Amino acid sequence: MSQVPAPQDPADDGPDDEPVPMMQSLIDNPFLLLFLGVAMPTVLYIVWGVMEIVGIPLAK
Fold first, then answer.
1. CA-CA distance, 41 to 35, in Å (whole number)?
2. What is the pLDDT of residues 3-36, one digit of tens each?
3. Where does the pLDDT of residue 42 fall: very low under 50, low under 70, confident under 90, or very high at 90 and above?
4. d(CA 40, CA 58)
5. What CA dihedral angle connects 37, 39, 40 and 46, to 10 degrees?
6. What is the rounded CA–CA span in Å between residue 24 and residue 34?
7. What secondary structure letter does DSSP report for 28?
8. What residues contact residue 33 under an 8 Å CB cut-off, 6+ apart?
9. What pLDDT sits at residue 26?
10. 52 in Cβ contact with 46 (< 8 Å)
């Protein structure tokens, strides 16, 4: 059997020179996602805890 090359997709002209969008580069970085997944809840819980402590009435 002879191998027949697959038809070329006209939209696939080769490597594009377009820059990668910033949001795509952020989402493609697993270590950044890991850092954000740990840091964001930590900061939110600390802020929530400080708000709860400030909301406690002072004793007389």
1. 10
2. 776 666 666 665 678 898 988 988 999 999 999 9
3. very high
4. 30
5. 140
6. 16
7. T
8. 27
9. 85
10. no
